[in-house]
Model the fold of this input.
Amino acid sequence: MQNTQIEDLLEIDDSSLDIEYIKILLNDQKEFNLCKKRFKDKFYTTLLRSITHETFEEEEAKQMFEEILKHLKKLNKQLHRDVGIVVASIDYLSNIVDIMNEPKIIEEEKSEFIAETSTKDELTGLYLRDVFDIFLNKLVEENKRNSEKLTLLMFDIDDFKKVNDTYGHQKGDEVLSTVGEIFNSSIREMDFAARYGGEELSIIMPNTIADDAYLIANKIREDISKVDFGGFGITISIGISEINEDINTAESLISYADQALYQAKNSGKNKVIIKSS
Done:
């Protein structure tokens, strides 16, 4: 990348760094050193503030950033993919050292930050799988301490391949975008909706029992079935699982919700099924 292109990624007032530029720094030691020289005794403070919108003293920021890089490597190994510096930073500061109040950087004042980073799926407007994994694991761990209710909903758009094959991928993208909008308009602030993969979506519902989640899931199912996509409609199948003594890990919660989802699809589709141990 030419110097002029790199300069374009820097904020004019030198108070922050662009996330894309930070990604470059992590993979280019020479550029990292040049940027460090440019910001002098405010480099690590600026680096962390750009990623988290939180301010730390330079020495503390330096130590924290080094720990975040270690945490990034650990997450990448656990999840078998690159989760990115933003997700790793949020997880470290909220879940490991508990500096940020909520992992949802999901508070109102953080909404602009979220929109500017790589935590959301561009097409659906829902959170990415990496963020989903981190958030679900945190809630499951919290459940072990306080025994609060936790329910997981897994969704799959019925016959989505036929939509792409019959009407084209642009129409398929329109379907996913519309479904994402319905999700975001249907959930509570405490809920966490994510694109799990492809046409499979999910909602994590804290402080919620399966029977209550069923009502919300069924409303989402009905709302989606009423949408006219220009000559055709779609349906969605939903599986629900609730944490309990037997279902007490993120993996088992997902497994039981998936089993319920498959049961819904194999028994006629366009329905909601709860799976308990």
